[in-house]
Amino acid sequence: MTVRVVVADDQDLIRAGLAMIIEARPDLTVVGQAADGIEAVAVAERTRPDVVLMDVRMPRQDGIAATRQLVAGGNPARVIMLTTFDLDEHVFAALRAGASAFLLKDTRPGDLAEAVRVVARGEALLAPTVTRRLLDRFADQLPGPAVATGKLATLTAREVEVLTLTARALSNAEIAERLYLSTATVKTHVSAVLTKLGLRDRIQAVVFAYDTGLVRPEPPPG
Q1: Is residue 148 predicted with pLDDT exceeding 70?
Q2: Domain range for 33
Q3: Which of 9, 76, 153, 208 is 20 to 30 A from 68 in CA distance terms?
Q4: With bands split at pLDDT 50, 70 and 90, how would you rate the model's confidence at 8?
Q5: What is the pTM of this model?
Q6: Does residue 11 form part of some domain?
């Protein structure tokens, strides 16, 4: 199966270079390109790609706002956010917008291609432990428990337990040991949680758990 990709970057040379990296792989193909966030949304809506490589900083509309618009509109494309700077603020904003991965533009071509494959499979490239560290750091920017608590009512008590432990960055095996369940059962519960809450991956589950107040930032050591 060929992974269909849209490349969005306001710099022509970078956009062309990214497209060349993608097209050089037999299992990846570029189905559209965009020079700003507004165009990126339009191209993604028209082509319905599997993955969008989205620059953070673009004219008219930045990549974070474009990602937020795609996710809110129900576009199934997964977003990999690209930036020149390794700033936690950008990672945090990208996660809040619904991105599934975050890469620097100097990432090696092979690693970029593999990131596209990973995200296209429905996996999040950023580890839940990193997500939790970011959310702990930017806790004062979280919307508060009232935002999405209504959705929690759709979950069973066991699913709430699984969501809580997922948000605490436990693996399926660790959750299974904690709750005396099989790993397969935990996977089923995680899948049910994501489906019921309309979340794309475990990373978004961590964000949701913080938004609802189900998990709160840990106090600093000492």
Answers
A1: no
A2: 3-126
A3: 153
A4: very high
A5: 0.74
A6: yes
